[in-house]
């Protein structure tokens, strides 16, 4: 009889064996150990089962193993991309364990007891997911790469059949790729230094703090005008970008993006935006096997969001499309890990191509592949690549043309109903229509679904046939923009009494947008309510709103005067907690009764911002808020200091949302480092040089 595997040998197998194989190995080892330890007794009666029963029992064991051990991909993030990945996994018998909120869209499409509830930025929850998974992958690149690196190197402990083993699920794409992609400046520097001919725009890093203005001047001198100012981290879909047309834009650019790490990029005079999805495969040792490109597509962005995708691109030659595919594979070959990648690029006026950015995951520009390349959609390709299953050497669409239209939330929750109804009722021999709804709450500009149209005609002919759909998409956008404009207009005052404009849904932010009405592309409802007694308080609150954007905290805005709209103010305060609000920031000047009155009507923490009015320099506002009677606690910050109000709100959220607590820790470290840099500069250069620099 062969000796049983040594325990230490089994414990070192975690990076090579799936959880299913580990269970079987440990189960077999225990059976063999029992055989060794049980003495043979001469008079012991041994019952031999019929051969058929033994085979049946073995089959049952295998079935149990399959039920509890289908190949499991742990997915960080469970939005619409994860949902469509699950829809592709279900018929393949692949299990997806999702780390996200309990009712995330992806979890609705895949029922398993392996899901983890929590934030995909929480290190402990990520380790819990790793312990339940054979492989790890991501739905969004903005994850904690440090914990992924630790899992790859050190593994996570897993108890199987009473044995503790170290489990190292392969991570695809690699944490190295994710970390690189998270910083757009470093991403492009990597492509430039790769040794391959990958065209990127000229770029320079922008210094932070007091040196930002000088850096912007240097960018203007080096690139000329216009140039692009971009956030290095956290942005997507064109968000986090600011077009600088002249030195006159510097102050506004700093105000919009100055709190984030930035870089400047030379303006690219593009005529179209193209995108190519690429499947990247490599062996278990990390050696590249192949990069296979899907067809090039044309993407249309409006309001910094992709709204339409055309396959093939309109009025673009096959030669350029083929160059785009080859360039995309060159780009992805420089990265690490298996999976599907999106390569976004510009088609310039002279017919050349320039790389814009890469997404290391399925992408909006690849949704069309579900119907246009049904044998290997981008979601099926993600599964095959991560699991190292076969993928085709070339990807040829089964239709001649395809158009993808994003369904974005409109001015009203039901704004998209006419569009989805048209998709459900349109049938024909010359155009197929496929509706995808993500079961997400409709909010202005939020991606809540998409429609794919396919045909065997040219893309121009398909566009003509799809005109009713395109017109509705455009109309929803126009209505949304009109409603946003009306919502942000100042309150009209008549005879000393203020009447709020007809109530529209409270507006929300996105971390990199300049408009207060654009919302985050997450599943979270607003966590912070920011309200003011008058629209004249909004400039004071702008600094605090910038902080909330920097930390990616979804918020709602409102005007609730304690004296002119007291009933409405009380209603807002009373309903806030029921709508998911966790903290309220209230700004008021003069008598400044608003923060205290709201605090008296809500169980939520309220932070008052005293606003400096015409008289008394804001001291009246400060004392009014801070001197609340016992039983009605109202936190108070310095006069006009909405920055601290926002930071305090984030600390309150951080008490129960780990990602905000981690972000706050990083903010404090960055703040400390900035002061140290200033101190070093002062010590080394002296006071005269330092003051001269400040004047500049």
Automatic annotation (TrEMBL):
Domain ATP-grasp: 190-387
Biased composition (Polar residues): 483-497
Keyword Lyase: yes
Pfam families xrefs: AIRC, ATP-grasp, PurK_C, RS_preATP-grasp-like
GO terms for biological process, alphabetical: 'de novo' IMP biosynthetic process
Start-end of Acidic residues biased regions: 52-67
HAMAP family linked to this entry: PurE_classI, PurK
Family: In the C-terminal section; belongs to the AIR carboxylase family. Class I subfamily.
NCBIfam families: purE (TIGR01162), purK (TIGR01161)
Identification of the protein by name: Phosphoribosylaminoimidazole carboxylase
Native source species: Cercophora samala
């Amino acid at each position: 009889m062969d000796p049983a595997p040594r325990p230490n040998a089994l414990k070192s197998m975690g990076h090579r064996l799936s959880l299913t194989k580990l269970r079987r190995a440990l189960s077999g080892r225990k059976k063999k150990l029992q055989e060794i330890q049980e003495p043979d007794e001469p008079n012991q009666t041994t019952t031999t089962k019929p051969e058929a029963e033994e085979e049946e029992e073995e089959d049952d064991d295998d079935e149990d193993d399959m039920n509890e051990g289908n190949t499991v991909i742990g997915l960080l993030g469970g939005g619409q991309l994860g949902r469509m990945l699950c829809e592709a996994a279900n018929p393949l018998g692949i299990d997806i364990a999702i780390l996200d909120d309990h009712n995330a869209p992806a979890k609705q499409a895949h029922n398993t007891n392996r899901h983890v509830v929590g934030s995909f930025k929480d290190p402990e929850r990520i380790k819990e997911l790793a312990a339940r998974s054979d492989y790890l992958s991501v739905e969004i690149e903005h994850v904690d790469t440090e914990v992924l690196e630790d899992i790859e190197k050190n593994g996570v402990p897993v108890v199987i059949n009473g044995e503790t083993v170290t489990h190292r699920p392969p991570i695809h794409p690699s944490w190295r790729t994710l970390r690189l992609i998270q910083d757009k400046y470093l991403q492009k520097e990597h492509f430039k230094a790769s040794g391959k001919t990958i065209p990127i725009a000229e770029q320079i890093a922008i210094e932070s703090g007091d040196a930002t203005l000088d850096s912007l001047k240097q960018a203007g001198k080096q690139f000329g005008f216009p140039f692009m100012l971009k956030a290095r981290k956290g942005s997507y879909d064109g968000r986090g970008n600011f077009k600088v047309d002249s030195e006159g834009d510097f102050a506004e650019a700093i105000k919009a993006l100055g709190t984030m790490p930035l870089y400047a990029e030379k303006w690219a005079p593009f005529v179209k935006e193209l995108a190519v999805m690429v499947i990247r495969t490599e062996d278990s040792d990390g050696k590249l096997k192949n990069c296979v490109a899907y067809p090039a597509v044309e993407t249309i962005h409006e309001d910094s969001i992709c709204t339409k995708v055309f396959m093939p691109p309109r009025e673009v030659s096959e030669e350029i499309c083929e160059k785009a595919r080859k360039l995309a594979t060159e780009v992805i070959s420089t990265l690490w890990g298996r999976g599907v990648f999106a390569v976004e690029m510009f088609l310039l006026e002279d017919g050349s191509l320039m790389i814009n950015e890469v997404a290391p995951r399925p992408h909006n520009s690849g949704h069309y592949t579900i119907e246009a390349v049904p044998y290997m959609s981008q979601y099926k390709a993600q599964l095959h690549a991560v699991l190292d299953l076969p993928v085709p050497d070339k990807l040829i669409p089964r239709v001649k043309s395809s158009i993808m239209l994003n369904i974005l939330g409109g001015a009203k929750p039901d704004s998209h109903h006419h569009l989805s109804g048209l998709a459900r009722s349109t049938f024909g021999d010359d155009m197929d229509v496929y509706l995808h709804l993500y079961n997400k709450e409709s909010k202005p500009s939020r991606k809540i679904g998409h429609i794919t149209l396919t045909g065997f005609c040219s893309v121009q002919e398909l566009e003509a046939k799809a005109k009713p759909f395109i017109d509705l998409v455009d109309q929803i956008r126009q209505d949304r923009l009109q409603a946003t404009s009306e919502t942000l207009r100042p309150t009209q005052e008549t005879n000393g009494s203020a009447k709020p404009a007809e109530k529209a849904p409270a507006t929300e932010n996105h971390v990199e947008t300049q408009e207060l009405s654009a919302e985050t592309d997450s599943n979270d409802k607003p966590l912070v309510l920011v309200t003011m007694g008058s629209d004249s308080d909004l400039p004071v609150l702008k600094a605090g709103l910038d902080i909330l954007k920097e930390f990616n905290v979804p918020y709602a805005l409102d005007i609730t005067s304690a004296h002119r709209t007291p009933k409405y103010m009380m209603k807002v305060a009373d309903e806030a907690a029921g709508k998911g609000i966790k903290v309220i920031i209230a700004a008021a000047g003069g008598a400044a009764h608003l923060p205290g009155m709201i605090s008296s009507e809500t169980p939520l923490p309220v932070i008052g911002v005293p606003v400096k009015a015409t008289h008394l320099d804001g001291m009246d506002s400060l004392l009014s808020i801070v001197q609340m009677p016992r039983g009605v606690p109202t936190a108070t910050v310095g006069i006009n200091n909405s920055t601290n109000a926002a930071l305090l709100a984030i600390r309150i959220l951080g008490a129960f949302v780990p990602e905000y607590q981690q972000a706050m820790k990083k903010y404090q470290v960055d703040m400390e480092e900035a002061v140290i840099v200033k101190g070093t500069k002062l010590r080394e250069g002296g006071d005269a040089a330092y003051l001269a620099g400040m004047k500049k």
